[in-house]
């Protein structure tokens, strides 16, 4: 009976003593959260005080690596390795997860076989998928409104999409973003930008997630074609020129009128250059009869003076007035 009581009390005593012994060491600094891209490495540090014996790393509740003070690291897979550091009376174990996968997302825990605070962190594995704009160049005409579509496929989580033009941020009111679930826990996103270009420009679609050091981007070059406006301008110039020429021809016809073939310039009326009417010699009277009985008056007969400076063949002058 006494031996039976001892066999029962011994486990109880050991159980009571172990927590007391464990208080001799503790985790002084636990791991921190990490966000990484799929395919890269993730690193977590756990620092314990002197006197520790065993340190176990767990991923989502499953042990992946063990470190003992006597033998060092005990690695069971190439994807989970460690590096160890000692500083004073403290020991630090660094867990390295290689070639991270989306499925690795979850809780990472550092355990020293006793309750401890700050002994866990979270790993977030993100995936940057593809980003594309179908056309690398696009020609637009004056007053033409176009829609540019940027497509992000196979991302985790769904990316934030924004737009820029010639290094200037485009207002969010100019585009619409949509998200949809993809396969294998991935996400797709679609962004549609609507604008009416007034000049050639480069449009850039930007997709961003936390793990990316800088946003992923895709660009399209808009070529502004104003040849229609130039052609209209040239047509207007030609039209105006034609109208002016037409008006000029009409003025010339109005000024020319019909030719007056009977018109003689006034300067040609000079009497020195114009022919005169030839005066006839005076008639000699023949009188029959005795000369002695005839009394002849010596007073000559005066005739009215005629104007002789008219042209021999005067022509009629007709004036034409054009209305």
Q: Stretches where pLDDT falls below 50 for ≥5 residues?
A: 1-22, 271-280, 283-303
- Biggest sheet: strands, sense, closure? 6 strands, mixed
Roughly how many Å apart are the termini? Answer: 152 Å
Mean pLDDT over all positions: 78
Order of helices and strands, N to C? HEEEEEEEEEEEEEEEEEEEH
The general outline is rod-shaped
User: In total, how many beta strands?
Assistant: 19
- Tally of DSSP helical segments: 2
Helix fraction by DSSP (H/I, runs of at least 4): 10-25%
Rg value: 59 Å
Structural class: alpha+beta
Protein name: Immunoglobulin superfamily member 5
GO cellular component, one term: bicellular tight junction
Keywords: Signal
Pfam families: I-set, Ig_3
Offer a concise description of the structure.
The chain has 323 residues and is of the alpha+beta class. The chain has helices spanning 2-22, 227-256, and strands at residues 27-29, 34-37, 42-48, 54-59, 62-68, 72-75, 80-87, 90-97, 106-111, 120-126, 130-133, 137-141, 146-155, 160-165, 168-169, 175-181, 187-195, 201-208, 216-225. Helices cover 16% and strands 37% of the residues.
